[in-house]
Amino acid sequence: MPMITPARAASIRWGMCAHLGDVDHKDHDVTALCRAAGATSVRTNARPGNPRGIEQARELLAAGITLHAPLPTPKDWRKPGALANAARAYLDEMTRAGVELNSVEFANEFNGNGEGWADVVRREMAGVAAVCAEAGVTFLGPSLLAYRTEQDAPAIAQDADGQPLHRHYPAGVAVHSYTAGDDPETSRTLTRLATVRATFGGDVPAMLTETGYISDPTCEGYTDPERQATLAPRLALAYLAPAPGQSSPTFAGLWWYELLDEPHDTRGPRERSRGFFTATGEPKPAASALSWLAEVLRDTGDAATTFTPVPLDIDVTGGEGLTWRLLQKSGRVYRLAVWHTGSGTADVRVTLARKIAGLRRFDQGDTDGEPLRADKGGKTFTVPGVGQRVTVLRIRMPK
């Protein structure tokens, strides 16, 4: 029976991208919407010149929601030092505006800014990284547009001195990748990440700074809202919690794109329909699904983010397509998330080395749960009818 070290339940955190202060966001209580989707961070392009955006940013910070932002790209970005100067000015202005950024990423996005951009990235990265270090802000490397990762990542593998570029951003590289209606466990996102790691180094951390779904059925990549609700919790768990036997998760963090539908987006219906909430603030099924997952994983203990997880002798079986993640809350209460990637449902069998003190099952949308009984002997139990949607088991072990 394998000994599995669980992830902390409190480490399964995600953020939302939000255009704070923009026409489609300015009249909303962004803080309440983020809480409703279980988001603990916001990635935003809010600038000091947008009073409503700054006001919303301060409200988020007051509620304990951290802020992440892409650094600005000035018009004279080809000029030596221009990107570093723009980064310094932006960080200083945000500080004066009373907005403390937790992290930033290199000007968004490296492979969409024009001819010569890769050369500028290689030359300017060290200067931008130094500005962020001086400001005490965590710095992520260049954003990588998913569909151009293979051709563009090698172009910035080294800095101007021929050294690995990622030495300038040890916190990780930023990746944009959308899975559409694909299973996240086998999606192109993982192929793209493999390319990133092959280019920058196998141990370089990665942040999924944009991912999400399109809700307009006229657009390529459209994902039915109920399908979104099935996939979003799976993506969060599959990417943010280590797979059984692994020591680290696929991504160190992720931000969903985006918080709200934006009917005024001039880029068309594809960009207008990516919200987890409608333009009027009503939650789509995926937002409700993420809210449920956040609630069943919530850990309010004082040591929720610092305790040392206790390994567990556990074996989980349930046929082809079974996927699972083991998590733990402070107080030695475990959460086992299980789901199937195939069609239909199947029973899942869980066996532990020690007698179980208590069991409860939480299906998507149910935060009260229902009790489960262990088999005779108290070390094994069956979870009937596990399907494509995540089921979470609460397992209480004796002290």
Outline the structure in words:
The chain is an alpha/beta fold. 26% of the residues lie in helices and 23% in strands. The chain has nine helices and 19 strands. It has helices at 30-36, 51-62, 82-96, 117-135, 149-152, 188-200, 225-240, 269-272, 285-297, and strands spanning 3-4, 7-8, 14-17, 39-43, 66-70, 103-105, 138-140, 143-145, 173-176, 206-211, 253-256, 312-317, 322-329, 333-340, 346-352, 358-363, 370-371, 380-386, 391-396. The strands form three sheets. A nine-stranded parallel beta sheet has the order 7-6-5-4-3-11-10-9-8, with helices on one face. A six-stranded mixed beta sheet has the order 2-13-14-19-16-17, covered by helices on one side.
Notable characteristics:
26% helix; 399 residues; 9-stranded parallel sheet; alpha/beta; 9 helices; 6-stranded mixed sheet
Rounded Rg: 22 Å
Biggest sheet layout = 9 strands, parallel
Q: Average pLDDT, to the nearest integer?
A: 93
The number of helical elements comes to 9
How widely separated are the two ends? 21 Å
- Regions with pLDDT < 50 over 5+ consecutive residues? none
Output the structural class.
alpha/beta
Question: Which percent range describes the beta-strand content?
Answer: 15-25%
Report the order of strands and helices: EEEHEHEHEHEEHEHEHEHHEEEEEEEE
State the assembly state of the protein chains.
single chain
Q: In which order are the strands of the major sheet placed?
A: 7-6-5-4-3-11-10-9-8
Q: Label the overall shape.
A: globular
What is the number of beta strands? Answer: 19
Q: Roughly how much helix do the residues carry, as a percent range?
A: 25-40%
